[in-house]
Amino acid sequence: MIPHHIAQCRRALLPSRLFSSSSVSRHENPLGLPKRGAPPQMPRRGGPIEKRAIPNVRKVLVVASGKGGVGKSTVAVNLAFSLSDLRDPTTNTRLRVGILDLDIFGPSVPTLMGLHDSGEPELSEVGALRPLVNHGLPTMSMGYLLPRNPESDSTHDTPVVWRGLMVMKAVQQLLFDVDWSMGQKGAELDVLVVDMPPGTGDVPLTLGQLVKVDGALIVSTPQDVALADVRKGIAMLRKISVPVTGLLLNNSHYFCPTCAPSPPASSTTGHSPAHSTPQYLFGPPDRFRATATRLGIPVLAELPLVPGVSSAGDAGVPYGLVERGQREREDGLGGVRWVEGMAGVARGVWEAIGGEK
């Protein structure tokens, strides 16, 4: 254990960050990081810029949707946790997985990972942001970098009021100025899960033009209003040559854990027929499946609506970490199917992005 006074001295010797402190450099350096090497250039009319790998990251997996409110951030966090349960067949060690939250205006990862009151990340000796870690997963988010509101002493109600240029520069810094090696020489992530904001604007465009992305998981809900925006999001990703790995239908159906049971419980599931009959609260999945077929994209999972997933996220805990007995007691068959479905998605995307050697 490092003595407190020594730790304070070490922190004092590290580079510091000045969030938007200079009006002159604000547009070029919105996160206030110490100046490092030349940043990647944005594409100009003269031709495209060569895409780069993110430092210390083997594979980049994007979780996206054209529509907000479909559970994309919840899926991203739980997918990262499920991926970390997989093993690299060449080393038989668990995958090293990180989460990058690129939602500049509405970051959710700090809350979902239980890090919303964690304070600012430290900087490495070369001025890169060091990820904050919880549940064994390193994470980075705009939510960690916001100044505290002096009235509430919190960043929860601090808005980001930026125009497009500053947003694009901030995205560049989050992509290329984070030390995913965690200060360990030669260490790297096997997979970086990138939680994207909704829409087809500056953030996904910047990522797709600058970074070598290995795959994208598209999240939707059954409603037509969500599917319409999903189709637009897929079209944009294909336009910037981001491979779409698969589709995930969230809140597909609901298993009622308290409905009156019918005759004996099923011997295979342990749940009565009344408990195991899916209720399609937001409409049947037919249109979603037809969209996937028309676009030629595999459906990796149709996850049920599970109240425990939401309450666990509010508590900052991936649903897979909730004690199994509690999941089955409170969420019934839905909780079982949700965890199994997410594990299947993890295996599917890992294989699809070439993770298995």
Automatic annotation (TrEMBL):
Region forming the signal peptide: none
Chain positions covered by the region annotation Disordered: 23-49
UniProt keyword annotations, A-Z: ATP-binding, Iron, Iron-sulfur, Metal-binding, Nucleotide-binding
GO terms of biological process kind: iron-sulfur cluster assembly; mitochondrial respiratory chain complex I assembly
GO molecular function per UniProt: 4 iron, 4 sulfur cluster binding; ATP binding; ATP-dependent FeS chaperone activity; metal ion binding
Similarity section: Belongs to the Mrp/NBP35 ATP-binding proteins family.
Name the UniProt record assigns to this protein: P-loop containing nucleoside triphosphate hydrolase protein
Organism annotation: Tricholomella constricta
